[in-house]
Amino acid sequence: MISCRRSSAQRKNPALVEQRRANRPSVARALPRLLRKGEPVDGTLVLIGGTDLLHFQMRVAQSHLRHDMTPSYWSHVAVAMRCDTGLELHEVAIDPPGGFADMPALNGIHTVSLDRYDDRNRFPNLAVLRFPIEESPGETVCDAILKVQRERGLLDLTTLVLPWLGYAWGAGLPANPLLSGNGIPSAAFAEAVFAALGVELTPGLATKASCPEAIWQAARWWHQYYEKPLPPELEEGRQVAKPRGLYWVGQRHACLREF
193-247, pLDDT tens digit by residue? Predict the structure, then answer.
């Protein structure tokens, strides 16, 4: 098992709402459903659950983080951002669409279009999550992404890609990388970005083995951790600044599909 802590919450986060799986939208349509009026898309997390070999293996590997040892719904996480031409996803994938040639220069971080994960057969599970983040003029989500990209000496995301490829392909000695403290690259990237903004994305983990399941559990069970008091002049009591999200699960039990 992976070393982790159980949340003290007595119930699931009511702000994380499951949607009808038959109505699973594209990523581009899911984001506006979650965002409040005037709320920026930057920093919205997109969780994906895939069914091809790589994604299936990663879902199974995360079963060690679940009390019932069943595979995770999720295999990947990306950070949504608005750019000059529209919306895009920033991610560290072990199957980058453009290949691996620029991995060292970019610390594994690539930008992809939202429609990369719109195939409902290949990626039946989708979640869009907002964690409470407070950007400042000196530290925006974009700044945090660039910091992670440029400071490979502090966090080398490319070193996480190799053990996960070996595990998924059965190459070498393919032990579960999470059990050795090697997080799933996409989740390690997201966690580093949020850490640069002062947000703990996986408070339940006692190791550095970040993964989409840990982020999911933070949104689902650690909502009380994120509650913050407001100044008295703004509001009495506490502001529930907990994570919120929408999710669609088209495949609850991971199985491999051929394409």
Answer: 999 998 999 988 876 789 999 999 999 998 888 876 555 544 444 444 789 999 9
What are the pLDDT digits (tens) for 50-75?
999 999 999 999 998 888 899 999 99
Q: Structural domain tally of the chain? A: 1
pTM score, whole prediction: 0.91
Q: Specify whether the CB–CB gap between 184 and 167 falls below 8 A.
A: no
**Domain presence at residue 114:** yes
Structural domain that includes position 70: 16-249
Distance of alpha carbon 23 from alpha carbon 249, whole angstroms: 10
Contact 142, 254 (CB under 8 A): no
Radius of gyration for the alpha carbons in the chain, expressed in angstroms and rounded = 18
Tokens of 95: 């199957």
Extended strands (E) in 123-192:
125-130
For residue 191, being part of any structural domain is answered with yes
Output the domain CATH number for residue 153.
3.90.1720
